[in-house]
Amino acid sequence: MSREDRFRMIDPSEGLSISGQCKALGIPRSSLYYTPREEPPENLAIMRFVDEQYLKTPFYGVNRLHQELSQNNFTLSKGKLRRLMKKVNWRTLYPKKKTTKADPEAYKYPYLLRKLTIDHPNQVWEVDITYIPMEKGFMYLFAIIDVYSRYVVGWSLSNTMSSEWVVASLKDAFEVYGRPEIINSDQGSQFTSKSYVDLLQGVGSVGGSLIKISMDSKGRALDNIYIERLWRSVKYENVYLVSYETVKDLRRGLTHYFEFYNKERLHQSLEYKTPSLIYSRAA
Question: Where is the Integrase catalytic domain (predicted)?
Answer without folding.
Answer: 117-283
